């Protein structure tokens, strides 16, 4: 990141935290944040230091599938990062990102032990940075007694990872792109709609870490894919369609638009250079199975993030059929 942009982030953080930046920390604090899956995707940044998106996006949170992060003050020269019980190497990209975020928001001499646990151990690798930075933001707010309003917590979580701005809440969450250069209006908020019958099926094809990060993938797509030119317009239109369908409880429109949105995002990636294809052969096999079942009359749709795994969208009344067709599926009820 350039020095000027880094300075702009520091200036914004100092403005938001004010004198609370130097509050005395509590001995410890802990917070939980759910994973989220975008129904209308965030793919492309208009600014990379604040993680400001080109378009808005809309997600569904995955209830008990998330991350719990505990924080405690340590008398040590550096932060200590622990993931699922094991110390993380300080040079790993995860530890570097976490420490960089903490150093932006804490007084320079305050060092923490960050103990992060993913709930529901599963093979599915799901937006780990989203829930991780959301839980870290909530826990730090509590440890430091900042008592910040939710929109500012969302903006702080976004500094760690864009999609983290949406992981502070359960249910449907919309992240508005905003217009300000410091991102003060690029924040997420929960939608009032509940959908108790909605189900998300996690189909894990591979739990390998992705070779190309979302950050790098977005940058490559924007700079080299001609198809990306049409993406912002489609993304905004899909977001509006999905939000209206959620309010109307119209499953077909919501799920169909979410699948089309995901396929279109992957098309922009595939037309980047070098090509960016996150799918594995097994992903395609499962996708075709979904399409075949749909042709046979089962209302089931899919979405995929920057990885090979599928997330199925369906309603509770079809859960038994979906489980019969995909015995390995892990079903989440986001509103129960
Ligand atoms: C495909 O939020 O992981 O999952 O802001 O660079 O950390 P950074 O990217 P990240 O990107 C998520 C991309 C996506 C779509 C989405 O979640 O909206």
Q: Tags for this entry?
A:
336 residues; alpha+beta; 7-stranded mixed sheet; 9 helices; 13 strands; 38% helix; globular; binds ligand DP6
Provide a descriptive summary of the structure in words:
The protein has 336 residues and is of the alpha+beta class. Helices cover 38% and strands 22% of the residues. It contains nine helices and 13 strands. It has helices at residues 3-17, 93-105, 128-144, 150-160, 214-224, 231-248, 251-270, 281-295, 319-325, and strands spanning 28-40, 45-47, 52-53, 57-74, 80-83, 86-87, 111-118, 172-175, 188-190, 198-203, 301-303, 310-315, 330-332. Strands 1, 4, 5, 6, 7, 8 and 9 form a seven-stranded mixed beta sheet that branches. Strands 11-12-10-13 form a four-stranded antiparallel beta sheet. Strands 2-3 form a two-stranded antiparallel sheet. Strand 5 and strand 6 (86-87) form a beta hairpin. Helix 3 (128-144) crosses helix 4 and helix 6 (231-248) packs antiparallel against helix 7 (251-270). The mean pLDDT is 94. The structure holds ligand DP6.
What helical percentage do the residues reach? 25-40%
The ordered H/E elements are: HEEEEEEHEHHEEEHHHHEEHE
Let me know the average pLDDT.
94
Radius of gyration: 20 Å
Low-confidence runs: none
Based on secondary structure, the structural category is: alpha+beta
What is the end-to-end distance? 41 Å
Bound molecules: ligand DP6
Question: What's the main sheet like?
Answer: 7 strands, mixed
Count of helical regions: 9
In percent, how much strand structure appears in the residues?
15-25%
Number of strands: 13
Based on the structure, what is the oligomeric state of the protein chains? single chain
Categorize the overall geometry: globular
């Amino acid at each position: 990141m350039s020095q000027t942009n880094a300075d702009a982030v520091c200036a914004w953080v100092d403005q938001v935290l004010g004198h609370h930046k130097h509050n005395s920390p509590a001995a410890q604090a802990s917070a939980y944040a759910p994973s989220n899956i975008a129904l209308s995707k965030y793919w492309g940044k208009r600014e990379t230091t604040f993680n400001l998106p080109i378009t808005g996006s809309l997600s569904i949170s995955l209830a008990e599938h998330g991350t719990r992060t505990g924080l405690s003050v340590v008398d040590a020269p550096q932060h200590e990062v622990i993931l699922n019980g094991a110390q993380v190497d300080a040079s790993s990209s995860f530890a570097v990102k976490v420490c960089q975020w903490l150093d932006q928001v804490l007084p320079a001499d305050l060092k923490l032990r960050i103990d992060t646990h993913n709930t529901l151990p599963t093979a599915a690798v799901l937006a780990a940075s989203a829930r991780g930075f959301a839980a870290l933001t909530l826990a730090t707010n509590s440890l430091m007694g900042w008592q910040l309003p939710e929109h500012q917590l969302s903006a702080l979580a976004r500094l760690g990872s864009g999609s983290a701005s949406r992981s502070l809440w359960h249910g449907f969450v919309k992240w508005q792109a905003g217009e300000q250069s410091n991102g003060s209006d690029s924040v997420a908020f929960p939608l009032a709609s509940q959908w108790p019958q909605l189900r998300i099926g996690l189909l894990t094809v591979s739990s390998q870490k992705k070779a190309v990060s979302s950050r790098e993938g977005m940058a490559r797509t924007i700079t080299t894919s001609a198809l990306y030119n049409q993406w912002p317009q489609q993304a905004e239109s899909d977001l509006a369609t999905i939000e209206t369908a959620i309010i109307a409880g119209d499953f077909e429109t919501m799920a169909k638009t979410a699948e089309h949105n995901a396929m279109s995002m992957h098309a922009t990636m595939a037309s980047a250079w070098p090509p960016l294809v996150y799918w594995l052969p097994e992903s395609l096999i499962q996708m075709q199975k979904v399409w075949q079942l749909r042709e046979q009359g089962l209302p089931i749709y899919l979405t995929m993030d920057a990885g090979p795994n599928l997330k199925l969208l369906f309603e509770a009344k079809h859960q038994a059929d979906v489980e019969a067709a995909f015995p390995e599926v892990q079903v989440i009820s986001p509103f129960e």
